[in-house]
């Protein structure tokens, strides 16, 4: 037997929790499903200084505040890794890895994105042995050591600045000749005496001794010269991939796997909405995930009312 709801929200990051909040506040019967702890990637962020209302707040603390606000309206919250989503008339049928089945006329997808891997030799072999995708999680293991950050966007520089609090030095290896991060982050990074920069560098291999990372090999894109940089840890931030595998049969993805929506977060399947980092867009920040969550939650309520009127 399936558990039935009015709205199922898959993903409990800032956008998903906001969508669930708006739907539950409108007196809909809401289930929030997530495969991990609420807050999503906020839990991996040390300091957030660009979310209105807080001069600075820890990521896990903001996650908790959002969760506490949501739970005032008493949605169900369950852990589950969604495997498939199918359509049965107006109902969306969701199956999880623990063989649970959930049904609702409305599905809100807020599964976010995950870190892209380099795909170079040594990356998978030394994952957890010096290769990391989360400085907040692993920085403490590299106190007073030389570490490397690969990437040049906001995440790379934010995490590099965080690492510099503990590491002996942080070398940012970037395949271009300038950073893509916000100017304020660049200014902070260039002013940090612990941070160094290697430009026009294409990472070719992560090298280790069988137990731990010892260096990276990279190619100078200007000269073609192969070089090696000793390092105790490699933190990789080279983009993100949408977490949309369970939804590929619904016909709502673009060629890159992102979910396509309109301004009301509607997909082309009636009753399915998507928001946050799972959408194709330029800005991936907590503030706009929350904004999209409120739009999706209200759009879900409107859809539910229209469905009732038709029936």
TrEMBL record:
GO terms for molecular function: thioredoxin-disulfide reductase (NADPH) activity. Binds 1 FAD per subunit. It catalyses: [thioredoxin]-dithiol + NADP(+) = [thioredoxin]-disulfide + NADPH + H(+). The keyword Cytoplasm does not apply. Its cofactor is FAD. The keyword Acetylation does not apply. GO terms for biological process: removal of superoxide radicals. GO terms for cellular component: cytoplasm. Its EC number is 1.8.1.9. Homodimer. PANTHER family: THIOREDOXIN REDUCTASE 1-RELATED-RELATED. This is Thioredoxin reductase. The gene is trxB.
């Amino acid at each position: 037997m399936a558990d039935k709801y009015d709205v199922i929200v898959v993903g409990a990051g800032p956008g998903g929790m906001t969508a669930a909040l708006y739907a539950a506040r409108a007196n809909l019967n809401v289930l929030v499903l997530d495969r991990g702890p609420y807050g999503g990637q906020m839990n991996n962020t040390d300091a957030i200084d660009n979310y209105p209302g807080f001069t600075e707040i820890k990521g896990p603390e903001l996650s908790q505040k959002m969760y506490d606000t949501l739970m005032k309206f008493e949605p169900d919250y369950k852990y589950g890794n969604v495997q498939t989503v199918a359509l049965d008339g107006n109902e969306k049928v969701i199956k999880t890895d623990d063989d649970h089945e959930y049904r609702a006329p409305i599905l809100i997808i807020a599964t976010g994105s995950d870190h892209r891997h380099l795909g170079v030799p040594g990356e998978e072999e030394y994952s957890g042995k010096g290769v990391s995708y989360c400085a907040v999680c692993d920085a403490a293991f590299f106190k007073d050591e030389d570490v490397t950050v690969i990437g040049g966007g906001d995440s790379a520089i934010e995490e590099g600045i965080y690492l510099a609090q503990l590491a002996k030095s942080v070398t940012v290896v970037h395949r271009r000749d300038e950073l893509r991060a916000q100017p304020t982050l660049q200014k902070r990074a260039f002013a940090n005496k612990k941070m160094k920069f290697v430009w026009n560098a294409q990472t070719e291999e992560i090298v280790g001794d069988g137990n731990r990372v010892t260096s990276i090999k990279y190619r100078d894109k200007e000269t073609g010269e192969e070089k090696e940089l000793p390092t105790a840890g490699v933190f990789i931030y080279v983009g993100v991939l949408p977490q949309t595998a369970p939804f590929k049969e619904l016909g709502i993805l673009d060629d890159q796997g992102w979910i396509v929506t309109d301004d009301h977060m509607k997909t082309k399947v009636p009753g399915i909405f998507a928001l946050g980092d799972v959408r194709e867009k330029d800005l991936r920040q907590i503030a706009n995930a929350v904004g999209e969550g409120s739009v999706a939650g209200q759009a879900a309520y409107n859809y539910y009312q229209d469905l009732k009127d038709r029936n």
